[in-house]
Specification:
With about 290 residues, this protein is an all-alpha fold. Helices cover about 75% and strands about 0% of the residues. The protein contains 13 helices and 2 strands. The protein has a two-stranded antiparallel ribbon. The longest helix has about 35 residues. The radius of gyration is 24 Å and the shape is globular. The chain starts with a helix and ends with a helix.
């Protein structure tokens, strides 16, 4: 009897959070898909049903194709460098006896800065007239460089996007490394393992579950990238740095085509879910290999 009442009270405590999640997440997802089936412009009260025409137009939209291509490039570099750099830094700090708290704070610092502030910081760095980079070139007697061009814009926004969240994954991975029993490291040291072998054959396999979670988080985070890119380049020049987040914003609020923007939003959600599931399947297979 007491157990039944306990479950009942638990459900009552969970109900408010379920209502909030239902309204702000699941209802929003359904509404996004619903509006994508309509020709809806200028936030008008009037909408005309057009079925999947917005989705058909995606394949003919050069800007969308460019945005999805750039997003996948960003995703590839984010997985390799955000997790790769974070893993290397965590493995190095894990070997320190003192000062690890200092490094943990320093590397986490960019995460707590807003994306808009980071975007503004790099925008000022890249500025042709008064930017930091060109100021340094002038001090060295070199000619100023136009840092944001159709060929360099994507790489210019890749750097701050990757840099911003390295510290986030560093802290997650470092916390996982701390959970490895010291006796395992001591045994490896007695067996003559070098730091490289210990990291490759012991540390990484034992924290593989955490690395798999980090990969999923990177995938989800990449499809949400907006503020840094928008502040630095606005998706330009000539859509060179356009990603799905910035293109959705441009279509919805500059082009005033909310129906088509909803279709883009639906594609972003769909790709995020599919790629996360694929990543989970791949990492699960790797995990089985390690356990074997």
């Amino acid at each position: 009897m007491q157990e039944r009442y306990t479950k009942k009270y638990k459900l009552w405590f969970l109900l408010p959070s379920l209502i909030i999640i239902g309204i702000f997440i699941y209802y929003a997802l359904f509404a996004t898909f619903y509006y994508s089936l309509f020709n809806w412009r200028d936030f008008s009260k009037y909408k005309s049903f057009i079925g999947i025409e917005n989705y058909k137009y995606l394949f003919r939209d050069i800007s969308f194709i460019k945005a999805i291509k750039n997003t996948f490039i960003l995703l590839l570099f984010a997985v390799v460098f955000q997790i790769g750099i974070a893993l290397v830094l965590a493995l190095i700090v894990d070997t320190l006896r003192r000062g690890y708290k200092f490094f943990r704070t320093i590397y986490l610092f960019p995460v707590i800065i807003s994306g808009s502030a980071i975007g503004l910081l790099f925008y000022l760095m890249y500025s042709y007239d008064y930017g930091l980079l060109n100021s340094l070139l002038s001090l060295l007697g070199k000619e100023k460089i136009l840092w944001i061009t159709p060929k360099t814009a994507l790489w210019a926004v890749l750097i701050p996007v990757i840099w911003q969240y390295v510290g986030f994954y560093f802290v997650i991975i470092l916390s996982a490394l701390y959970q490895i029993p010291q006796s395992i490291h001591d045994s490896a040291k007695i067996d003559g393992f070098s730091e490289f072998k210990k990291a490759f054959y012991i540390s990484i396999p034992l924290i593989w579950d955490v690395l798999a979670v980090c990969i999923s988080l990177v995938i989800i985070g990449t499809f949400k990238v907006f503020d840094v890119v928008y502040v630095i380049t606005g998706g330009g020049p000539m859509d060179a740095s356009q990603v799905l987040g910035t293109y959705l914003y441009t279509v919805a609020f500059t082009g005033q085509n909310q129906g088509y923007a909803s279709a883009i939003g639906t594609v972003i959600i769909f790709l995020g879910i599919i790629l996360s599931l694929i990543a989970q399947i791949i990492t699960k297979r790797e995990r089985i290999i390690y356990q074997a």
